[in-house]
Amino acid sequence: MNLHALRLFYEVASRGSVTKAAEAMHISQPAVTAQIRNLEQELALTLLSPQGRGVCLSEAGELVYTHAAKLFALELEMTRLFTAYRDGSLGKLRLAATYLPANHLLPAWMAAFKSSHEQIELSLTTSNSRAAFNKLLHYEADLAFIGGSKEAPAGLLREELLMDELWFVVPGQHPLAGKTVALAEMLQQPFVLREEGSSSRETLFAICRQYQVQFPQIGLQFNGQHETMRAVMSGYGASFISALEAAEYIHQQALARVHVEGIHAPNPIAVYRRSDDDLSPACEQFLSHVHAHIN
To answer: Beta 255-260 vs 180-181: how paired, if at all?
Structure first.
């Protein structure tokens, strides 16, 4: 079916006049008439009949008009949706993140973004950095927010967003609370650590290798940072965690920082994306929103 001719028929039927339709479509009246005749021949149906200075619909014309109205309404809706998608106000955004950005940064960023982008579906999966990278590389996430000094794996691009720091912490009433000690003394404590693949654990072990000291004894191991901190706050061992996470509990004296001589462990928060893919409009809008919140 010739959709251009169907469009002209729809405009004539809507306006009840070939002249008015021709003016609205900026086409000559004879061209409109010729197109509608061609459509009638194609369908083997009479669609319009003269009525005074205008036209009226035949029974077949009514049927064609009803379905044409649905078709062009759908076209209008598709145009609206595509425009909204291009503008970044419609779409789906899947985020992967490690514990720190997932618990301390992204909830506020996502809530504020959603309030002004109601038609964008947002989801967040929390995991360690290794699993978050895998989700991104296997197209199960659109962006990954990672805490820790992680080089971008092959196929990914890295953008640093803000800088955190990793601190040694102990229970609030621990003998080392608030003191400055040597690394070797600090590592004599039993440690509560995250699972293999977590950024804080890998950074701690890298420090041990750099200073050629023995790895700490792992007294407890958890799959989440919240559980790790809770164990230390309950009175057991020491840990190596984000300042952003620890600050509130240190203020409450549930945890205490231990200053270790010569150790400064920056903990950047970065966002990663696939290097060979263009960001979707929704991704671009969300990243712009994140930058605005940080700045």
So the answer is: parallel
Has residue 149 got a pLDDT over 70? no
Q: Are residues 67 and 210 in the same domain?
A: no
H helix intervals, 44-146 = 59-87, 99-104, 106-116, 129-137
User: Does residue 171 sit in the same domain as residue 53?
Assistant: no
Whole-structure pTM value: 0.65
Burial status of residue 294 (CB atoms within 10 A of its CB: 0-12, 13-18, 19 or more) = exposed
67, 87, 107 - which closes a domain = 87
Please tell me whether residues 63 and 45 are part of one structural domain.
yes
Look at the alpha carbons of 6, 12, 15, 19 in this order and tell me if their dihedral is positive or negative. positive
Distance CA 28, CA 255 (A): 82
> How far is the C-alpha of 25 from the C-alpha of 92, rounded, in Å?
37
What are the structure tokens assigned to 61, written together? 């014309």
Q: For residue range 82-94, list pLDDT tens digits in order.
A: 777 777 777 889 9
User: Do 73 and 130 share a domain, yes or no?
Assistant: no
> What's the pLDDT tens digit per position in 172-202?
999 999 999 999 999 999 999 988 878 889 8
The whole-angstrom separation of Cα 230 and Cα 227 is 5
Q: Which two tokens stand for residue 293?
A: 């919140």
CA angle 7, 8, 9 (to 5 degrees): 90
- Tell me, yes or no, whether 196 and 53 share the same domain: no
| 3-state SS, residue 247 | helix
Closest to 60 measured CA to CA, from 72, 71, 68? 68
> How many Å is the maximal CA-CA distance in the chain?
102
Angstrom distances, CA of residue 218 to CA of 106, 187, 191, 246, 257: 30, 10, 5, 20, 19
